[in-house]
Amino acid sequence: MNYEIPGRTNLVIACVQLAVLASILWAAGQVRDWGAVLLLSVAYGVAMNSAYAMLHEAEHGLLHPNGVVNDAIGIALTLFFPAPFHLIRQGHLGHHIRNRSDDEAFDLYFEGEKPFWKFVQLYGTLTGAFWALIALANLVVVFNPSMRTPRAMHIDRTTDAFLESLNPKYQTLIRIEALAAIGLHAALIYFWQIPLLQWLAVMFGFGFSWSALQYAHHYGTVRDVRKGAMNLKTFAPLDLILLNHNWHLNHHMHPTVPWTYLPLLSEPDERRGDMFMAVFREWRGPRFSTERVENRYAGRIIH
Questions:
Q1: Phi, psi angle pair for 232, to nearest 5°
Q2: Mind listing the pLDDT tens digit for each residue in 79-93?
Q3: Rg of the chain taking only CA atoms, in angstroms
């Protein structure tokens, strides 16, 4: 079957997403009631999770058949994350080669590892800390574009594997994107007179929800780089807004297939788990495992 990239459709959706995101941030400067701020926070969470699903297409080169257009729209969407597109792109493509190996198993700890650190990682992800770290990375890459650390400064296996996969050829571009993200939000805060706490509250509406969902599709799954994912669901309108991102197993099995075709890769009667229940299950925390799965692609640089 020919899985044609729906370039025009994606461009229209991306333009709507950008307009909605900008409108929500503008509105954050117009309100003073914290009830309204909360509503804007929820709205930004839904809109930016949808935009993340679209920039996820860009990470795989599936947003538009023209590579320049694909990356340009991906960069524009990622500014509202806020993050450097080419940094999170490398992180995501690296996820596809590290998934469920010992290099990326946040729900497990092994002999010789500190369980406390795995609990910090998983519960930090569930409470928004993962997004906060990526947002703070904008500042880090401005002063240390490579983000590389000496072997002597070992952090943890997952972080080390991520840092080792970074391609030096993107360093300058990532630094420019980080400066653009910082500059954009500083300008929006200044010119639209958004109180800093209200800006942070609205942004965290996305950060909390996005971060909490990041491992829901993988928690407790089989230790296989492709099969270690689940197809989940919420309800039809939200699944559509999220651009079929919940068909996550299908995506991992067929990462070059655009979002519009992912449901077609399953049988019509396939039973999918509930996404919100999947997030709830993660609060059980990491468990000890003696099953070791080496990353076959360890040391590979992302291109």
A1: -120, 180
A2: 999 999 999 999 999
A3: 19
